[in-house]
């Protein structure tokens, strides 16, 4: 494997590491990229956003009840 290919594969692997999520927080400032509803789902770990889905609860988890952030 070439040096460039090895560096690229390491960079990709680093980006694919799963981040732990402490809580799912509603983001009322953005609309769902799929259906336009608010809020969208944001995953937070130690006060830092680690997952920004860009989708509402229904589109993220596929359940109508998830429109309510209390169900997340």
From TrEMBL:
Top-rank taxon: Bacteria
Protein name according to UniProt: Uncharacterized protein
């Amino acid at each position: 494997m070439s040096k460039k290919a090895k560096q690229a594969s390491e960079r990709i692997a680093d980006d694919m590491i799963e981040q732990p999520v402490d809580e799912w927080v509603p983001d009322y400032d953005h609309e769902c990229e799929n259906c336009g509803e608010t809020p969208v789902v944001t995953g937070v770990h130690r006060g830092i956003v680690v997952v920004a889905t860009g989708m509402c609860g229904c589109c993220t988890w596929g359940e109508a009840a998830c429109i309510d952030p209390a169900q997340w």
